Amino acid sequence: MLRIVCSVLLMLIATASYAEGEEAAAPVSSARYIHLEPAFVVNYGSSGRMKYLRTEVSLKVSSGEAAAMVTQHKPYIRNNLVLLMSAQEPETMNSSKGRESLRKVCLDEVRAVMTQLEGMPSVDDLYFSNFVVQN
User: Fold this and answer.
1) Are 88 and 102 in contact (CB under 8 A)?
2) What is the mean pLDDT of residues 10-29?
3) pTM for the whole thing?
């Protein structure tokens, strides 16, 4: 009986160590995320009552070099995103299709800034972590 228990334990240990070896062989992603802090708080809309947006923005880059370049230019990127977000209309902010459109426009703006300053877009994607509007 002891021999059977020992055999089962050895098989479990062998299986566990094999599974760990497979996990270690998985490719490691070099993607990095740069969080533009503090959160963006802007007023938007051209008429009527004042409307507010609060959102957190993260940028995805694929290398340490790209992360360093983007980090160096954070103030310029933030400035352009504030101007872009504050120029939006309520119809854009209040629909999921509009928010996705805004996300793409913001990504294009960040890529344009980085291309202008560094000669390459450097940013793979842009994400809104939070998106709260007050009408």
Assistant:
1) yes
2) 55
3) 0.77
